[in-house]
Write a structure and sequence with these properties.
5 helices; 3 strands; 2 domains; mainly alpha
Length: 167
Amino acid sequence: MLGLHILIAVGIAAFANALDPLGIVGAFILVYLVLRLGGRFIQMGHYLTRLELGVRFVAWFALEVVRASIDVAKLVVSKRVSPSPAVIKMRLEDGREDVATLIGLLLTLTPGTMALDYDPETSEMYIHALDARSAEKVEGGIRELEHRLLEWMNPERGGRAVGEEQV
């Protein structure tokens, strides 16, 4: 479906003689709005939900990478702050190896953290954190990553909505 969405957007941009990046993004948004308005009639609701969750996840993760980069830069530049590195073991909510691989890759992309190992039998992942003064805070950040990723991958699983607090 995403390929069709992109193809239609590029076609509209080409027809409007606007094949620059801004024109393609504008056409992509236009196609999205048309699909959102008519999605119930052409049964595109599931695709649009996944598209929205994907865009939210990517934007959230990019912001998290920027925050982590600033935190690591503060540790490097500051003379008074000394990091407290630690290896944290935590059980993942979803034990599938492909999900664990994605979480490990995303953690390793985030400055200051690195996925070290994963045990598929126990669903436990070992994570190195550059500054783990509060193991609960580190684990909470990883749980947030896991919940948002699972929500995007399986919107029908009944997970919480983006930005909604768990009770």
